[in-house]
Amino acid sequence: MDAERKEYAMAPVRRVVIMAGGSGTRLWPHSRRSRPKQFLPLLPPDGEALLAATVRRIGRLLPLESIFVVTTAEQVGEVRRCLPALSVDNILVEPLGRNTAPCIGLAAQTLKRRAAAGQEPIIAVLPSDHHIDDEEAFLRTIAQAFAVAERGHVVTVGIRPTAPETGYGYIELGERSDDPEPLDASPRLAAAFVEKPSRERALAYLASGSYLWNSGMFFFPAQRILDELHAHLPALARILDEIGQHPERLPVLYAEAPAISIDYAVMEKLGAAQVGRDAALRVLAGDFGWSDVGSFSAVVALLPADEAGNRVLGRGAEEPVLLRCRDSVVWSSSQQLVAALGVEGLVIAVTDDAILILPQRCAQEVREVVSRLQSGGRSGLL
Question: What is the pLDDT at residue 316?
Fold first, then answer.
């Protein structure tokens, strides 16, 4: 395609955009609108925040000045607290959250505008709130994805499934691409994006070997994604163009942007069945111990357990007292003593203004509590 030939003539410069917005619902009451999970001190042994871990990890591949964080205006303070060494110029501020397509489009336009003459930013979009076990394998995959994107392609990293997860979207793999070597592994073309499946369908996906979890990591030349937005979401593209010409109008114009994810807006349109081979989305398979830390069950998996399978995070002012308890987790930031007796498989989450108790099997349902608070007008607890 013409856009790809134009990009080959440019000097590629690698940039990372980390999306650090979000409303903080699945780990309530610890995660709130003003402080969603990427800012929480979750990671052992010293309570590293997920955002800080994301920057530290990718900082092994690129210098800090090449790393940018996109967040909402109300969360800029948390970003600066987590990342004191990051230049304020590298914090890109959305006036309000409008989902990932406007966020990514705004970042691509900004980095394109800041690039030196003759340079084309090759952007890696990474979530801020994921955990990676094998950082070496992760960085090898990221470097390979950058290399494919530098050829003008849009690329995603899918995660090899290890269980029949029903809480993730999936990507169906198509045929192998004909991209020239050398690469560690030939990319595949995306055949389709699949919504969160039933357990039966997730089992079939796992058995087939032809599906990957959708990680939300994307790579592309800045101009390529802007061209795709013009093709598939012209209403947003027009707003981004106007912001580029009149940046002082960002708050007003951005509020008019459609609230839509990049998956719906662009990536699903680049399935190989819908577009030509050259334009199709490339997929690389990642196998590096990935978790989106999307529930209390995922948090539990990050923590060391005692001999009874209990885990403790954020001890608050007092050491919890756990008597004849098994396979439970206590997460407290309160001044209160937390004591539990004879319970099994529970999550006990305590803050200064709220207590949540649930069996771990209900970990994906915490949003129901948040929805009830919201519908009841109790926004001060959100």
Answer: 64
CB 321 within 8 Å of CB 339:
yes
User: Tell me: the pLDDT tens digits for 76-88?
Assistant: 999 999 999 999 9
Amino acid at 40: L
Residue 363 near residue 293, CB atoms below 8 Å: no
DSSP output for 54-78: HHHHHTTTS-GGGEEEEEEGGGHHH
Give dist(CA 51, CA 129) in Å, integer: 6
Angle CA(255)–CA(257)–CA(263) in degrees, nearest 5?
135
Q: Whole-angstrom Cα distance, residue 334 to residue 351?
A: 5
Determine phi and psi for 93, rounding to 5 degrees. -110, 120
Q: Where are the beta strands (DSSP E) in 154-210?
A: 155-159, 170-176, 188-194
221-261 per-position pLDDT tens digit: 999 999 999 999 999 999 999 999 998 999 999 999 999 99
pLDDT over 90, % of the chain: 76
* pTM, full prediction: 0.92
CB 270 within 8 A of CB 280: yes
Question: What are the structure tokens assigned to 291, written together?
Answer: 């978790």
Confidence of residue 4 (pLDDT cuts 50, 70, 90): very low
- Alpha carbon of residue 210 to chain centroid: 23
Task: Give me the residue label for tokens 């290399």.
Answer: 147
Contact residues for 372 (Cβ-Cβ < 8 A; gap 6+): none
DSSP for residue 364: G
Q: What does the CA dihedral 269, 272, 277, 282 come to, rounded to 10 degrees?
A: 80
